[in-house]
């Protein structure tokens, strides 16, 4: 089971994401939490076992787009799966996320099915 | 819902109402697992409802104007929203910070839904982060620098009500020019 990193400035939303992962029957190992992209990067450096990232976009300090770009500059993280979870469902934002190096995109509010669909191929 | 006067806002009232309706339905069904229950003006005394408001969450949308999506309610309803989002059977066990955070996320998802469904078609808009505050009752605390961009929505939930307003101000253009 992969270790997950969940990045969102709302602690409530991080809990909701964990709850929905369970509802979706996704096999989740340990979970590391971070409150913005900067903290997310620090978590990735500190814990090389993290194998899956779910990240919000609209966050203070470092947003999700800059977070993914920063991840992709690291040679050891080029294939780390990163799924964006955002309230913004517009095409421009989705394209910006994918262009920055994200592997998938889920719009809030989300269902267990939409999370499972986005993570398909990355987790069991 | 009471009719709002023509606000002069750049986005029409009827479009806002329609988009907010769809966004609210999605939120209730997806995140709370139940159909929403809108309160019509004829069903209840709006003044009494608004007098129960104790906490608000607001998210701003900045573009050619400044819009604010505001969710206002009592602490007990906010606590029930948090419990619903977190699937906690006992709302009394939630910490105040969890309740504030959940109300902020509700406002965030509604504002994001409006942005996606309506605002993104009309140029560049920036979604702010949720601000949550304790407030005086709405009918005793008029928003001096804001006007209602459409009639307020009232949603029945957990024995109380959520009041959802879309506000607007000309300050958005000034912010963009600054």
Structural class of chain B, by secondary structure, is alpha+beta
Number of contiguous helices of chain B: 5
Roughly how many Å is the radius of gyration of chain A?
13 Å
The fraction of residues assigned to DSSP E strands of chain B is: 15-25%
Q: How large a portion of the residues of chain A is in β-strands, by DSSP E?
A: 15-25%
SS field, number of helical segments of chain A = 5
What form of chain A results from the Cα inertia axes? globular
User: How would you state the average pLDDT of chain B, rounded?
Assistant: 84
| Main sheet makeup of chain A | 5 strands, parallel
N-C termini distance of chain B: 36 Å
Q: How is the largest sheet of chain A built, in terms of strand order?
A: 2-1-3-4-5
Largest interface: A-B, 22 and 25 residues
Helix content of chain A: 40-55%
- Main structural class of chain A: alpha/beta
- Mass-distribution shape of chain B: globular
User: What is the rounded distance between the termini of chain A?
Assistant: 8 Å
How many DSSP E strands of chain B? 7
**Low-confidence segments of chain B, ≥5 residues, pLDDT <50?**
1-5
Mean pLDDT of chain A: 95
């Amino acid at each position: 089971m992969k270790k997950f990193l969940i990045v969102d400035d709302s602690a409530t939303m991080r809990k909701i994401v964990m709850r929905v992962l369970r509802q979706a029957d996704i096999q989740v190992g340990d979970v590391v939490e971070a409150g913005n992209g900067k903290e997310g990067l620090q978590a990735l450096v500190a814990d090389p076992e993290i194998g899956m990232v779910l990240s919000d976009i609209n966050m203070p300090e470092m947003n999700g787009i800059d977070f993914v770009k920063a991840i992709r500059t690291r040679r050891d993280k080029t294939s780390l799966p990163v799924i964006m979870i955002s309230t913004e469902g517009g095409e421009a934002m989705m394209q910006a996320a994918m262009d920055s190096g994200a592997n998938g995109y889920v719009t809030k509010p989300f269902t267990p099915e939409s999370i499972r669909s986005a993570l398909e191929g990355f987790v069991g | 819902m009471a009719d709002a006067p023509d606000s002069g806002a750049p986005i029409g009232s009827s479009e806002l109402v329609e988009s907010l309706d769809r966004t609210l339905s999605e939120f209730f069904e997806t995140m709370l697992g139940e159909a929403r229950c809108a309160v019509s003006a004829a069903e209840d005394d709006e003044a009494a409802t608004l007098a129960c408001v104790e906490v608000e969450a607001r998210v701003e949308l900045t573009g050619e104007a400044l819009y604010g999506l505001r969710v206002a309610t009592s602490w007990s309803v906010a606590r029930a929203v948090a419990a619903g989002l977190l699937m906690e059977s006992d709302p009394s066990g939630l910490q105040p910070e969890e309740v504030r955070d959940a109300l902020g996320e509700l406002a965030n998802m509604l504002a994001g839904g409006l942005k996606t469904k309506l605002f993104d078609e009309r140029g560049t808009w920036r979604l702010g982060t949720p601000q949550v505050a304790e407030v005086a009752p709405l009918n005793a605390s008029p928003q001096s620098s804001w006007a209602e961009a459409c009639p307020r929505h009232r949603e029945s939930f957990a024995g109380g009500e959520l009041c959802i307003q879309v506000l607007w101000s000309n300050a958005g253009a000034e912010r963009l020019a600054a």
